[in-house]
Amino acid sequence: MNEALLHTIWKYKLLEQTQFIGSKQEQIEVVSIGEHNQDSGPDFFNSKIKINDILLAGNVEIHIKTSDWLKHNHQQDKAYDNIVLHVVYEHDVEVPQNEQFNVSVLELKNYIKPSLLEQYNQLQLSKQSIACGKSITKVSDIVWKSWLDRLAIERIEQKTAYIEHLFEYGKHNHEDALYVLLCRNFGFKINNDAFELLGKTLPYSILKKYADNPIQVEALLFGVAGFLDELFEDKYAKQLQNEFEFLRHKHQLLPIKKESWKFSKTRPINFPTIRISQLANSIAKQKSLYHLIEEKPDLKTIKLFFDIEPNDYWKTHFKFDVLSEESSKSLGETAFHSIVINTIVPYLFFMSKHNLQSDYVEYALDLLSQLPPEINTKTKEFLKLGVKTENALESQAQIQLFDTLCTKKLCLQCYVAEFLLKNSR
């Protein structure tokens, strides 16, 4: 038994009754459980409790044993003077403060169903990565879907916290902030930091001056990325090098270290050279990504924006001066979906926050619902349990659930556990 479980039982009314007998045989009726307090002080604020037909309004404190009141030194804390009910699993001693203020004690030990405790123990003792296991499919669709919606929004809002940093860095310029975020996500995890550094070192304000000249955009990106500081044999590489030498002095640019980039443990299509060439192609357009999404285009229009083919040179190369078998280097479906999920959708939430336009949130969620679900090690865990995932909105929610609750065994904060405990028989 622990206090977290008792909080859950009280908060979600898992006792399935509202009338009880107190430690002194008084009639206790719970009219309102109150508001759960996650900070210091009583566990529930503004509760309404009827004691022998007298309605009391105040706070409720919950402990495993009544004596925990003394162990926690509540008797010395004025914040606990307005307690109207002391809820415990086991009533072991009389507390002077309860006696002084005539606070009733409600012992729950005989009111909690053994099946509920058994269900809770199964969750806590489970060795599965998702503790509830196949029981998760017992949850009603309404509960499951509403929980996923909440988790998806929670995940996206967490991503906007980082965008706030980029927005501050870009001096409150939306184009610059979204550009750096796009750069970061072109790293596709392994090169995220290097791409972000590239975006911060080479401002979008410089790049957009050359948006009508793809070669100059490529020269700027490859040059600042540190890839043009060597001797080349190929004509294309030499052309970029010459262009960059001029632009480098004109804009006083300082390249980052080439060692910042990682090529090992990644597929050639994910080499930073290929991703930079794709990024250059997306920037060499007359309209910025920010001004595109500001108009709330449909998914097809966004996909056309990222229908990018780098310079023909990259059809037969993955690195400068290293010939390879010819292949397409266009941005793939999975990469495009990742950009929508990790760049466009979070930024739309950020725009909603700063522009006070809630329709950006609805638009962002609609985009997610149109994308297929992500398949990765985390979503596969749910798939093994028979959970059907319809779109990226749901897979993002599953990732959030797995990361924040399942891996930490915080079952009592999950709607699934609440449902299972409530329906334990």
Please provide a written account of the structure.
The chain has 425 residues and is an alpha+beta fold. The chain folds into three domains: 3-112, no CATH class; 113-169 and 340-425, no CATH class; 191-331, no CATH class. It has helices at residues 3-11, 68-71, 96-100, 114-125, 141-169, 174-185, 192-201, 204-207, 214-224, 235-251, 272-283, 289-294, 299-305, 333-355, 359-370, 377-384, 392-406, 415-422, and strands at residues 19-21, 27-32, 35-36, 44-51, 54-65, 83-90, 104-107, 317-319, 322-323. The strands form two sheets. Strands 1, 2, 3, 4, 5, 6 and 7 form a seven-stranded mixed beta sheet that branches. A two-stranded antiparallel ribbon has the order 8-9. Strand 5 (54-65), helix 2 (68-71) and strand 6 (83-90) form a beta-alpha-beta unit. Helix 4 runs antiparallel to helix 18 (415-422). The longest helix is centred in the middle third of the chain and has 29 residues, at 141-169. The relative contact order is 0.11. The mean pLDDT is 94.
Poorly predicted regions are none
Number of strands: 9
Structural class: alpha+beta
- The gyration radius over C-alpha positions equals 29 Å
DSSP helix fraction: 40-55%
N-C termini distance? 19 Å
Helix count, DSSP H or I runs of 4 or more residues: 18
Largest sheet: 7 strands, mixed
Which range does the strand content fall in?
5-15%
Give the number of domains: 3
Mean pLDDT: 94
Q: What is the H/E string?
A: HEEEEEHEHEHHHHHHHHHHEEHHHHH
The gross shape turns out to be elongated
